[in-house]
Design goal:
There is one protein chain. It is built from eight helices and six strands, in the order αααββαααβαββαβ. The protein is an alpha+beta fold. It has two domains: 137 residues, no CATH class; 85 residues, ACT domain (Alpha-Beta Plaits, 2-Layer Sandwich). The chain has a four-stranded antiparallel sheet, covered by helices on one side. The chain has a two-stranded antiparallel ribbon with strand order 1-2. The longest helix is centred in the N-terminal third of the chain and has 43 residues. One of its GO terms (cellular component) is plasma membrane.
Length: 240
């Protein structure tokens, strides 16, 4: 067997150390995720960290540092696809982003361990666990703050439901009224509802700017009085 002639105890112990470090550090990161009942918990983070270390360690032994760098690039992209599997969209809400980022971090820890950078792997583990635990009270405190429409980064739109025959005229009126109130329009669309072909939905998306809800209420109330308009409203949606 070729194994008997190529086996080197020192290299094997080096690999064993890298895998052990990745296993232990991945377990620490995964334990916090498991405690919070996240989708990717203890076993997933351990496997990601250990596998990343194994790939990098193998490249280090075969091709040296240059080979390890190439493998790390593939690990980064590969774990990105794995993280996409834990991201779920429920209506307007997206869940799993933090879990996916944690998996990515576990892969980074494994890469450090596989490259024999044990101290860096331990330091990164501390930062990852701190990010998932120590920052939680700060996040909760920020989320409890009242929502301020004036200072928020949000997309605002004005929607009119109107007579389809007057859609073009009302679209121009909508743009003129908004610009007169110093709310320039970034985009405007005219849609035909499936349940009412004689109606038209006119949606104007505003240029990102400071919004005064009271002023916009006045503009919408004025638009609702226009001939042919059956309903007028405005809405906001926050985006990352």
């Amino acid at each position: 067997m070729r194994f008997l002639t190529t086996f080197q105890a020192f290299d094997f112990l080096d690999t064993l150390l890298s895998l052990t470090v990745a296993f232990v550090l991945g377990m620490l990161i995964g334990a916090e995720r498991q405690y919070r009942l996240r989708t990717a918990g203890l076993r997933t983070n351990v496997l990601v960290a250990t596998a990343s270390a194994a790939f990098v360690d193998l490249a280090m032994h075969l091709k040296g540092a240059e080979g390890a760098v190439h493998v790390m690039a593939y690990v980064v992209s590969g774990v990105g696809f794995l993280g996409a599997g834990v991201i779920m969209k429920e209506g307007m809400n997206v869940r799993g982003l933090n879990t996916a980022a944690t998996l990515w971090s576990s892969a980074a820890v494994g890469c450090c361990a596989g490259a024999d950078m044990v101290a860096q792997a331990c330091a990164l583990t501390v930062f990852v666990i701190a990010g998932n635990t120590l920052l939680r009270p700060l996040v909760n405190a920020i989320n409890r703050q009242p929502f301020d429409e004036k200072s928020s980064e949000a997309t605002y739109s004005v929607r009119l439901t109107a007579d389809g025959r007057l859609a073009d005229t009302l679209r121009d009126q909508l743009v003129d009224r908004l610009e007169a109130a110093n709310y320039p329009v970034a985009d405007i669309e005219v849609e035909t509802p499936e349940h009412a072909e004689d109606k038209a939905e006119i949606v104007a998306t505003l240029v990102a700017t400071a919004i005064d809800p009271k002023e916009l209420d006045i503009v919408v109330a004025d638009l609702s009085k226009c001939s042919g308009v059956t309903y007028a409203t405005w809405e906001s949606s926050t985006k990352d």
